[in-house]
Amino acid sequence: MQSRRTFLAGSLLAYTGTRPLRGAARSYAEIEKLLARDDIKGRLNKSELPTPALIVDLDAFEHNVARMAAHAKASGRSLRPHAKTHKCPEIAKILIKAGAVGACAAKISEAEALARDGVTGLLITTAVIGPHKIERAVRLTSRRPETILCVDNAQNVRDLNSAAGAARQKLNLAVDLWISNRTGIRPGEPALALAQLIDSLPHVKLAGIQAYAGNASHTKGFEQRKKFSREVMAQAVDTRNLFEKHGIECPLLTGGSTGTYNIDSEIDGITELQPGSFIFMDIDYNRIGGKDGDVYQDFRNSLFVTATVVSKPTDSSAIVDAGLKAFATDRGYGPSLHEREGISYAFAGDEHGRLSLADSASSMNVGDRLDFVVPHCDPTVNLYDRIYGVRGGAVECAWRISARGMSQ
Ligand SMILES: Cc1ncc(COP(=O)(O)O)c(C=O)c1O
After folding, report:
1. Ligand 1 midpoint to CA 274 (Å)
2. How would you class 88 by CB atoms within 10 Å of its CB: exposed for 0-12, middle for 13-18, buried for 19 or more?
3. Which of 129, 180, 254, 329 has its CA 20 to 30 A from that of 396?
């Protein structure tokens, strides 16, 4: 008679075609125990992960981290990658180990989650508005005094100053410039007036300027992107010079993105780069085009959603277990297959995706697993509790996305 272990091993191989790392297949209860212990290096197979699963190809990820860190170093700029992409303290710490001075956080709650797990050098890139969030910012800063907060409003600066005074603290502020289509104060004289206000108050200190141009980052074509970014960033450099002309020290000018990192690092006066998506990449970024062609390939695709074929209604179609809840849908197109030809994906509801199969892919069957490149990395990551680090077929780590959902 077949033992339960042999039976499970047989059924796993039949479904995945992948041999478990060590000997026989495990039950899900065993896998669950491994995951709960966060001690899975060398113990867990990628094919054992419950799907849909968010995975990072560690070779590609490490390549991306090393490339950006080397670029920042060679161009004499500091690097403070944006954690809104990964929302994961482990990743922020890996980037710091590679040379980053800290991490950007989009919101106060994201910053709190990163700080709780030991991330230092935080820059909160959106304004902290209202008494409760200001209270939280002061509390965070009492533990991490190097934290920098962005401001674009005089009353907000006064409120921060009062709250910091009451707590006998001093807050570091960066003037957020409106060089794009979102937040910020207008460059030049309006920004100077805000910097002068900061300079005049006892409990706040000017750390510098933040200038982020979201519409430059995704401008298609390298030359067009370069022209656009140079134009908008020139306003930030001029404003920094204006501050200094008026005797206001402005050590920091931070900005840039995955799309413009090698453009902005050539502009005199920009001291720091804050790209995010480069660690993972996505279809959206692949499409902006690089220096050497239509596909942007400075960084490798490292982020994937692994899904399982759960139904095969016809020879030319299959259904996977990853739908609207597995991928961000803001880009108007679905994910694409990683390294597989003849298969296209369309959303088929909350839980499912429909694959159209060319003849070459018609042998695909229930139980097969597929990796998808995601349309947009940041909001996709925000849908998952964990990201599994994979090398070859082995799972090396499971990082908690502890700032997931932290959009407050
Ligand atoms: C303020 C700020 N800085 C940097 C980034 C990073 O941009 P990317 O992910 O395009 O590199 C973002 C992304 O939205 C951002 O909002």
Report:
1. 7
2. buried
3. 329
CATH fold, domain 60-286, is: TIM Barrel (3.20.20)
Residue nearest to atom 7 of ligand 1 (CA): 257
pLDDT digits (tens, 9 = 90+) for 67-111: 999 999 999 999 999 999 999 999 999 999 999 999 999 999 999
Residue 138 has pLDDT above 90, yes or no: yes
- Residue 247 scores a pLDDT above 90: yes
Q: What's the CATH architecture for 15-57+299-400?
A: Beta Barrel (2.40)
Query: pLDDT tens digits, residue range 263-293?
Result: 999 999 999 999 999 999 999 999 999 998 9
Q: Are the CB atoms for 232 and 216 separated by under 8 Å?
A: yes
Calculate how far, in angstroms, residue 202's C-alpha sits from the geometric centre of ligand 1: 31
Which of 78, 183, 212, 378 for mutating ligand 1's site (highest number of atoms within 8 Å of CB)? 212
The arithmetic mean of pLDDT across residues 377-385, rounded, is 98
For the residues 177-186, what does the mean pLDDT come to?
94
